[in-house]
Design goal:
268 residues, mainly beta, 2 domains, four-stranded mixed β-sheet, 3 helices, 19 strands, 30% strand
């Protein structure tokens, strides 16, 4: 049975829903395997850093790349100054580890690519195939902080938001670290005849906090409550999560992506 342990590499923008899907899909595995499959519609896409023919691109030329050391690796990788793209493919690599028959080694968005040449034995057939592949492929060197329409959006909610585009691609907009909120004025409970517990009046909301001033060409994403108290701001939107808004949900009913945004109310 496939397990996820502390030795599993789960840092490729995988959410808990992705991990739950991997464990469920490969529960019967008890040996080494590598596989690539399409993500179900209920799951958000994942960033893929590969550029080159395997992604439908032209071969990446030497003059378009730089050799950079990634993380703790000892040898440099072939890098291109582009951002990762969203992919609906998921590659899963797993196998035996210590006393476990099968644990997740790693999982990432995009097609399966061979190990880089420096990770292969000198003179081996694996090394030869790796060198051929990486002679025309490269990895994105820019962080996935802005992808397409996400480049001008600031997410002012506590969680990352995923926009499902009409072509099926996902745009992940990470939380900015600032949360826009609406202040609530203090309320006092009152005793109502016939009611066994005190009753408080409906909330009265005050000012919106944490929302920056408008900036031409840039947009903010906020919660529905905040949006309702932001009149006349054409640069502020909230995720459309109503029953008829086309939001994508997983088997548990949790929203994993939205296909529409809601505009702020017009100033009266």
């Amino acid at each position: 049975m496939l397990k996820i342990t502390s030795d599993s590499h789960t840092d490729h923008a995988l959410t808990q829903d992705h991990l739950d899907f991997i464990v469920s899909a490969f529960a019967d595995k008890d040996a080494f395997f590598i596989t690539t499959l399409e993500l179900p519609k209920s799951l958000p896409g994942l960033p893929c850093a590969i550029y080159g023919p395997i992604m439908g691109d032209s071969p990446i030329k030497d003059e378009d790349v730089s050799m950079e050391v990634r993380g703790s690796r000892e040898e440099p990788s072939r890098m291109i100054a582009k951002e990762p793209r969203s992919s609906r493919l998921l590659t899963v690599i797993a196998g035996p580890h210590n006393d476990e028959d099968c644990i997740l080694y790693t999982a990432y968005g995009g097609p399966c690519a061979p190990k880089e040449p420096f990770s292969c034995e000198e003179g081996s057939e694996e090394r030869k195939k790796s060198e051929e592949f990486w002679s025309e492929h490269a990895l994105a060197s820019l962080e996935q902080t802005k992808i397409g329409v996400a480049m001008n959006y600031t997410n002012l909610t506590p969680h990352s938001l995923t926009l499902r585009l009409p072509d099926g691609a996902d745009v992940i907009i990470p939380a900015s670290g600032t949360v826009a909120r609406v202040t609530a004025l203090p309320r006092e409970a009152d005793v109502i005849a016939g009611c066994p517990v005190p009753v408080i009046p409906s909330p009265v909301f005050g000012e919106v906090e944490g929302l920056p001033a408008p900036l031409a060409g840039y947009f903010c994403l906020v919660s529905g409550l905040v949006l309702a108290h932001v009149q006349g701001r054409s640069d502020v939107f909230a995720p459309a999560t109503g029953p008829d808004d086309g939001a994508i949900r997983n088997e548990k009913g949790h929203i994993v992506a939205v296909t529409r945004l809601v505009a702020a109310p017009v100033r009266s």
